[in-house]
Amino acid sequence: MPRKMTKLEAVREFEHKAAERISASDRLGFHLTPLVGWMNDPNGFCYYDGAYHLFYQYHPYSTVWGPMHWGHAVSTDLLHWNYMPCALAPDTVADAAGCFSGSAVPMPDGRLLLMYTGVQPAGTGHKELQMQCIAAGNGRDFCKDQHNPVISTEQLPDGFHAVDFRDPKIWQEGGTYYSVIACRHEKHQGSVLLFESADGRQWKFVSVLDSSCGELGKMWECPDFFALDGMQVLLVSPQEMRATADSEFHAGEGTVALLGLYDPATHAFARQKVQAVDYGLDFYAPQTTLAPDGRRIMVAWMQSWATVPGTPCAGGKPWFGRMTLPRELTIKDGRLYQTPVREIETLWQGKTELSGVAVEERAALPGISGRSLDLTVRIDVDASPECRRFTLRFAEDAALYNEIRCDLDRCELAFDRSHGGSRRDIPHTRHIKAAPQNGKLTLRLILDKDCAELFVNNGERVLSAVLDTPLEAQGITFGADGGPVNLDIVQYTLA
Fold this sequence. Notes:
Blueprint: H1 7-19, E1 37-48, E2 51-59, E3 69-75, E4 82-83, E5 99-106, E6 112-120, E7 129-137, E8 142-144, E9 160-173, E10 176-185, E11 189-197, E12 203-211, E13 219-228, E14 231-239, E15 256-263, E16 268-276, E17 284-290, E18 296-301, E19 319-320, E20 327-332, E21 335-340, E22 348-359, E23 372-380, E24 389-396, E25 402-407, E26 412-416, E27 429-433, E28 440-448, E29 451-456, E30 461-466, E31 475-481, E32 485-494
């Protein structure tokens, strides 16, 4: 009698067969999508054994959220990804209701250690429980620890909730493992807890690094914690945020960078600056890794819970969800900046450069169009004294367009996809600050089919959005109100 397959063996067999029916043209050019089925949060982003590994929250059997697995892909350039077999399936008592978000770190013995939230289903007299589990392996196959969970709810300090205890981010420093984990406090709400371990298995609580205290959402998810350019950065993804009058934060699920100082002796974090990570419509749960050359690289889920379809579909695609283009992080003048990974330059083809172009009436410009491109527009505000508003339309045809509007006299920018073809009642517009630097306002727009990522002023602010506009809409036009606008434009097609 043949042996019954394990859950992991079964999902690997399923995803292999299902993936054969998805052609390369059904996928994006350089944004990672799931092998099959559903994708959300990035997990286990790391550099290991000569390649970048990116795991992700994964429901292979459907294009809607379901019992969480870990999908897996590897890359040497952060742009071209090779799919690996499913890494984790919910197949033990500790994670019977799902293998939720987590992270990865290379071990001294050469193995890769995964740390993730195992969810135990609700039972008689108790709600579901979230605890932290580990698995170790060779970068393809992983063995779950027999003592899982390695951090249980009994280790939580007083006042913290066992049903909101998740998303460990692990790293090693000075021979000690550390992990920041999100949890909700009955009074202070969203919080980040720090744990430490000598071996990755025996953990103890160290400190509460920071909390919302009712100001930044009710529950914090997917924390990350790292040093960068002389400061310490704590990334969190708050739920149920309130919008702020200055447009820094929008209502709902957001992403926040807390910049400050960290004392490793006392494990105390002192917050100094708070800013949004991404100002767009589709961005959540960012995670970072340290590249071999010292760069801090970040990737995020390029969707949001507000824009997830409510029916079992994926816009006609055999998969749902995608990751952002990986980004390099730096701190300038006390602010977190993001730029596309420099590896994108290896995709540059077909350069078109226009200098000192004066635009007033809406117009297309020679050589500027497409849906797979890296387009930089530099607005010479000082040389355009009469222009009150500059507009850039992209993914445009006779009926549809997406638009970036820059109110130059108010130093504000609007990203608007409401005319892009969507028939869904979801957020379509974001407004942000966009002040010139040295008399110029720089917009860098990267398009990959239905993905749009806008980098303002060399990464001072970033907006990410998924477009509903058909790929046949390839047009790009420019316009100005009040008077002519002076532009320098460089476009590369990406292939």
